[in-house]
Amino acid sequence: MLRALKLIFDPGEKTNVAYYLPTYDLVKQIAYPRIAEMLNNLAVPYSVNKSDHTFEVNNKRLIMRTLDNPERIVGYEVGDSLVDELDTLPTAKARDCWSRIIARNRQKKRSGKNTVAVGTTPEGYRFVYEKWGKNPTESYELIKASTYSNKHIPTDYVELLRETYPSQLLNAYIDGEFVNLTSGTVYSNYDRTRCRTLEDIQPGDHILSDLPQEERNRICHEAYQHLINRKSSVELLASTDDNSEPAGGVGNEDFDWEEDCASPVLVIRRAWVREIDVGSSGSRGADDGSGGRTG
Q1: Strands 115-119 and 80-84
Q2: Could you list the residue range(s) of the whole structural domain that residue 219 is in?
Q3: Are residues 134 and 207 in the same domain?
């Protein structure tokens, strides 16, 4: 948004600027009030045509369009464009929008260089990765900016994200990295060395034997994650037929977290967490002691 105004106020150019957002709601709720606020703070005269979605500033037009309907990106020309959150679109749709946007950038500039800038959080290996990460050309430049560099966000904003988001989302949303957000999220922390076991299934382990392999893997993963996340307070039960013999709490001297949690299989066998639903409908998770569910 600041770049759009900088281009508008460039005294050496007479060309228009386009600003694209994913939906009209974002134009109405974010673009209109913020641009108007910045112009008012600068005491710069302007006019707004909301039916045409344009600002008239400094004898130039700031044209706002949305990405939800690519067919409407027609009928105007600009010298520069800015695109917000392009990677939130499906790849094919983003590719279509991009082709139409660069086609609008045909007003001749005195500098001879038309530009299109994209500001977006990378959403995995989508269009932005395809164009700027995987197959960049000489005319494409990738600039990564961490959320830590934003001086206008609350001081605890990043820490709150770290308490909520898995590592892949943190890498994408905080550091601007291209990461896989569509597969491997359940077992993202799996370590082939640490989680490997040579133990065989024993007769007393039949609690999982009648379930599909995928369901067994899910339950092992949930039990393992729950034990690690709740190791300071979880009560453990021995994995017996009736699931009733106590194995003691975390303070049990016979229970070693590094050794006994090395494998999800051993976790299931040696320390079963209560209330993990092994039915075909899915897992409820384990009671966290506050009435809620964790899973």
Answers
A1: parallel
A2: 203-294
A3: no
Tens of pLDDT, residue by residue, the chain (295 residues):
888 999 999 988 999 999 999 999 999 999 999 999 999 999 999 999 988 899 999 999 999 999 999 999 999 999 999 999 999 999 999 999 999 999 999 999 998 889 999 998 888 888 998 899 888 888 899 888 888 888 888 888 888 888 877 777 788 888 888 877 766 555 555 566 766 666 666 665 545 545 666 666 666 666 666 655 654 333 433 333 344 433 443 334 444 444 444 444 444 444 443 333 333 333 333 333 333 333 3
CA atoms within 13 A on the CB side of 276: 25
Phi, psi values for residue 127, rounded to 5°: -65, -40
Q: How many helices (H) and strands (E) does the chain have?
A: 10, 10
Q: Which residues 6+ apart lie within 8 Å of 284 measured at CB?
A: 275, 276, 277, 293, 295
- Give the tokens for residue 46: 């302007």
Question: What are the E-state strand segments in 28-181?
Answer: 46-49, 54-57, 60-66, 80-84, 115-119
What's the total number of domains in the chain? 2
Is 59 within the bounds of a domain?
A: yes
SS3 at position 195 = coil
User: Which alpha helices (H) appear in 78-146, and where do they start and end?
Assistant: 91-104, 127-128
Question: What is the end-to-end Cα distance of the chain in Å, rounded?
Answer: 40
Taking alpha carbons only, the member of 146, 129, 141 closest to residue 180 is 129
**Cα torsion through 42, 144, 61, 23, rounded to 10:** -110
Question: How much is the pTM?
Answer: 0.60
Segment (H or E) for 83: strand 80-84
Give the other-Cβ count within 10 Å of 287's Cβ: 14
Single residue among 118, 143, 168 that ends a domain in this structure: 143
Which residue in the block uniquely carries the two structure tokens 């039960």?
A: 237
- Phi and psi at residue 237, to the nearest 5°: -125, 145
Q: How many residues does the chain have?
A: 295
